[in-house]
C-alpha cells in the first residue's frame, strides 16, 4: 500500500540542473589563472636560460680571444646570437664586463673576467598602455666568471 503525502509544500526543485553550470564557472575561474601562470613562468624561464647562456658564452669567448679587438667582436657576435636564439629584447639587454683585480685594461692576462647579463622579461598579455608593459616585467640577471690565461695577448 502506498502512503499518501501529508505535506502540502511543493517538492524542492531549486537546485536542479545547476551543478553543470557551477562546474563550468569554477573550472573557468581556476583554469584561466593557471594557464596564465604557465605562460608567464615559461617566458621567464626562457629569458633566464638566455641570460645565463649569454653570460657563460661571452665570458668564455672573451677569455679565449687573442686580443681585445677580437674579444669585443666575438662578444658582440655571441650576444647577437643569444638574443636571436632565445628571443630576448635587444633594447632591454645590458652587458657588463669587469676584471679582477680591477685597475688595468679589461681583459688582461691573468685576470678573472666577470660577465653579467641583465634583462627584463615582459609578462605575457600585458598591453603597452600607460606604461603597464614596463611595470609588469620581471628582472633577470646572470653572471659568469672565467679566468684569462697568463699568456693572453702574447704572440
Describe the protein.
This protein has 155 residues and is of the alpha+beta class. It has one domain (24-147). 45% of the residues lie in helices and 19% in strands. It has helices spanning 18-64, 68-86, 132-135; strands spanning 94-100, 112-122, 137-147. A 3-stranded antiparallel beta sheet has the order 1-2-3. α1 packs antiparallel against α2 (68-86). It is rod-shaped and about 110 Å long.
What are its keywords?
155 residues; alpha+beta; 45% helix; 19% strand
Approximately what portion of the residues adopt beta-strand conformation?
Answer: 15-25%
Give a count of the beta strands, DSSP E runs of length 2 or more. 3
Query: Count of DSSP helices?
Result: 3
Strand order of the largest sheet: 1-2-3
Kindly state the percentage of residues in helix: 40-55%
Shape: rod-shaped
Mean pLDDT equals 86
| Sequence of secondary-structure elements | HHEEHE
Number of domains in the coordinates?
Answer: 1
Spatial extent as radius of gyration: 29 Å
Topology:
Blueprint: H1 18-64, H2 68-86, E1 94-100, E2 112-122, H3 132-135, E3 137-147
Antiparallel strand pairs: 1-2, 2-3
Helix pairs in contact: 1-2
Describe, in short, the structure shown.
The protein is α+β, with helices and mostly antiparallel strands and 155 residues long. It has 3 helices and 3 strands; from the N terminus they run H-H-E-E-H-E.
